[in-house]
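Case study.
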Amino acid sequence: MKTARQILKQAVVKKVAIGHFNIADLAGLQAIVAVVKELGVPAFIGTSEGEAKFLDRKAIVAYVKTLREEYKLPIFLNSDHTHSFEEVKKAVAAGYDAILFDGGTLPLEENIRQTRKVVRYVKSKNKNIIVEGELGNIGSGSTIRKELPKGAAINLADLTKPEEALKFVKATGVDMLAPAVGNIHGMFANAPEPALNIRRIKEIKDAVKIPLVLHGGSGNTDSDFSAAINAGINMIHISTELRLAWRKGMDKSLAENPDEIAPYKLFPASIDGVGKIVKQRLQLFNKLL
Ligand code: G3H
Ligand code: ZN
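After joint prediction, the assembly is written out as follows.
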């Protein structure tokens, strides 16, 4: 069984991106696990602070670890968008495989100071845990949007700059970097997302030479994803599209089975909807299409 770090290295060598999917319940987890079993490619499973609180950090670590070991699956758990040192400590203690410390909206020097502290702490506890840093504002919240998130970097002048990215990576020692390259969290219901700045991804990758993570994957086009991967993205986060599929599946289940009260009989439509998206994304990200 490969470790999370080996899986990341393998993605870099193969020039593919690992799919990262957020979950809030066992329906989401089951959907991901079924696709990983079918395709035989790795996946990272993410819990935001809210999702982690709902699931319980120790419990979800044990659940993912059990599935990984029982079925020999390359699935790993990431503490996604962890905003405080206290939450980082909880994620380490619970046994997460990876942690994103999100200082993306902080001024550069403060982001460096806090992220460096996190990297030192995590490495002192467990060198195998992958630490990701965030540089730039891509807005927060995996929601359906009517307008761009406040403060999100969309204009060229606001995107993550290669020289700042290099300074950040050198000063903090992060294993992976999440930049702002035209990506936003959430997606529009009936409008295309802003295009990714592929050139900027390449410039940042050439400067930092560590794996780059693309957040806010929901709503982006397949061609933008492929170009981003070729430019140096090695992990892509998807959440909003999964939440929407979960909700649509549940609506359908409830409408078709108005008298059903057994949760495990209502969830399959959600699992199916989430699974379809996970499969399509994993095929694209791993260049299997
Ligand atoms: O960390 C989570 C992701 O960046 C998800 O973004 O909801 O736009 O897919 P998304
Ligand atoms: Zn994100």
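Observations recorded in class. DSSP finds twelve helices and ten strands in the chain. The beta strands are 18-22, 43-47, 75-82, 98-101, 130-135, 144-145, 176-179, 187-188, 212-214, 233-238. We will return to this complex in the next lecture.
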